[in-house]
Write a structure and sequence with these properties.
elongated, 147 residues, mainly alpha, 5 helices, single chain, 86% helix
Length: 147
């Protein structure tokens, strides 16, 4: 009976480790760009939706709300279409991104819902905060994809 298991030489082991590292970087890079698109899309939809809701009242408010919901559905559908890529490239980062965006958005909706189109400064500041956090998250993800 011959032993079929053979340990790699140090040079073979280094080559195998380099190949594994390269494969991991390529998988993360492929997964990163759909995530960047989702983060930028979600940030722009929420930021502009916050502005639209915060600066309108009555029927215009409901038109803006419906448009916001439709675009959120489009972004979520895109995300679900690339769910496998997100699982490969994301992890805890994705949860942190969405958690930060959600926290700011909750505050934005409280301000928008209670201002009746009157709190222009608060609405603009929260819309800008949503933009900043989503662009920062997308930038971080794009840098991860470039590695």
């Amino acid at each position: 009976m011959t032993d079929q298991t053979r340990l790699p030489t140090p040079d073979e082991a280094r080559r195998l480790l380099d190949e594994a590292d390269s494969t991991g970087r390529h998988a993360t890079a492929r997964a990163g760009w759909p995530g960047v698109a989702v983060l930028l899309s979600l940030g722009s939809v929420l930021s502009l939706g916050t502005l639209a809701l915060g600066l309108t009242t009555g029927t215009n408010y409901f038109v803006a709300m419906i448009a916001l919901l439709v675009w959120i559905a489009v972004v979520v559908a895109f995300q679900l279409a690339f769910l496998r890529s997100h699982r490969i490239g994301f992890g805890r980062r994705w949860g942190l991104y969405l958690g930060a965006i959600f926290a700011i958005y909750v505050v934005a909706m409280v301000v928008v819902g209670s201002s009746q189109g009157e709190d222009v400064v608060g609405t603009c500041a929260l819309a800008a905060a949503l933009m900043v956090i989503s662009v920062a998250a997308a930038t971080h993800e794009a840098r991860q994809a470039e590695r």
